[in-house]
Amino acid sequence: MSENAEIIAARPSGAATGVGNGRFGRSLVGGLVTALPVVVIGFAILAFAPAYYTHLALAAFVNLIVVVGLQVFMGNSNIANLGHSAFVGIGAYGVAVLSTPLAMKQLSIPNAPFGLALVELNPLVAALLALCVVAIIAAISGKIISRLSGVAATIVSLALLIIVHSVFLNWTDLFKGNQAFFGIPKVINLPAMLVASVVVIVIARLFKDSRWGLQLRASAQSPQAAAAFGIDARRLRLVAWVLSALICGLAGVLFAYFAGTISPKLFYFQQIFMTLAMLILGGMATVTGAVTGVIVLSIGLEFIRSIESGVTIAGIQLPQLLGLSGVALGVVIVLCMAFRPGGISGRLELDEQLSRLFRRNAR
Amino acid sequence: MDYALQQLLNALAFGAEYSLVALGLAVVFSIMGLVNFAHGEIIGVSAYSVFLAAALGLTSPIVAVLLAVAAAALAAVTFERVAFRPVRYAPTTTGLLTAFGVSIVVQNLFMLLISPKPQSVSILNGLNQMWFFGPFAVSSLQVMELVVSGLTILALVLFLNKSTLGLAIRAASRDFATVRLMGIRANRVIATAFAISGALAGIAAVFILARRGSVSPDLGFGLVLKAFVACVIGGFGSLAGAAAGGMLLGFIEVGLLVALPQEYGGFKDALTYVIIVALLVYRPEGLLGQRVELGDKEI
Q1: Complex ipTM more than 0.95, yes or no
Q2: DSSP structure string for A159-213
Q3: pTM higher than 0.90, yes or no?
Q4: Would an 8 Å CB–CB cutoff place A147 in contact with chain B?
């Protein structure tokens, strides 16, 4: 198929020949370049923006980490994943259960099983334990998902989302069910979130450019050719799934630590829709695409939400516009898929685009 | 004994509904490889048309039923024309995500144009009565669900086996390129498949309306997720597999409802999915699916 040829042609000439340190260094620098817009925006908000925008920015950074995590699996394996919010939720509820102060727990979950009502861990330890739980659940679910063909894998990822959501809703002794879980220590501020975002972007880029990432992308393009080269696509899908889940879990941990209050519906279809639209708009083949999509849609959605939540035109309030942002998200996905399936950034990372540009200008 | 019979009927009725919806998904998937996440919104369009017609003064339940089926078929064909035709030759993931996008758009349009809250529709409530057979009391709706689903599936099988277009659809699921070489129009085959899929969704919508008596924007979404699961258990793209998967799902759900103590009832959905995922560990290609060599579907 034509797409195969494109990807092969798109491999930057250096990356194919470079070995060891050279290649690692290049993708490290590439990752940092990709993260640069995020850093610039982050500093701009730190320096100038009022407190309200800082809160919005924190939420946008959480979305950024989720989308980058989603890209790690979807972009490299080319299998649609509709269950990543499950891991965001597990991360968030993990730290909520482990690190909420005891006095708060007496109010909210006095009957928690396994003596968890009497546990109050340091936020860092709680985060690490929550990520361990994410890793275990990801390893089990990944074992199943990596065996299935593309479509079935997508459906099972959805099933995972529904299972996890339903457990949050119904295990009220531990997760408070439908009610908000409050009192989580707020230990994350914008600089910390910024650092986490940059680290995650670099990790995603390193994985994509690594031997495993390259092999996984190859097996997504042509399963038979990849298998003929001795590539174990299942194992690679499992690795990408677990890494993706860990990044999403981290996003959940950070979200819980900055918001202080979480509820199950935050980690359900609403978030899936939004993060998926962001990734598709930006372009799921690259980490740059993930970053671009989050930046563009976060700004766009904030604008739409300001209309949605009731503009007063000629003295008439319009509360019926509820759903406008959803329509916009869906239209973005449909139009992107029809006219530009590669998304905004296409198949080249930011640093690759820049180096192309400079080479052309130098000539 | 009475209780067991009642639960058996429950399982059959649920299973029949899942089978109808799953068949609609499988018909479309088998010929164009499209995972139609917007199928639930076809059910939604159908239900909302009945709601609007009733609001405008429609009183006859028979007309409402016909309207529901026609609206669903029309919606399915329209979705294909507007959204899915541009991505017809694209990879499966592209089609899947497009359908997901369509689903979000339509769901939110219901919210935006009508209301985010459930709206009551009472026109079809007459279908849901109690019938008495000697000592047994059964819900008329469940009996009708079973009978109508059975007849619909029979009609579908007859159509696929006896008519030229049906033959073309079956052939297209094996090798679309050759079907076109035989002088059959691709657009017509695909439009027919969507119309069938829509009509099946419309019938399901009638039963949902009769049972719930209300419409809401996410009306069909949950049902379609289950139908997808039914397709996956049966083997994606296999029509017999979709029907069997739907039935199996109905039995698993009712079985869990009976077996689970009241206070754990909320875990029914979670456990259903766990059982299904466990099934897939043993047969990753589904119960009736064929083990396709990876890459076979590439053209």
Answers
A1: no
A2: HHHHHHHHHHHH-HHHH-TTS-B--------HHHHHHHHHHHHHHHHHHHHSHHH
A3: no
A4: yes
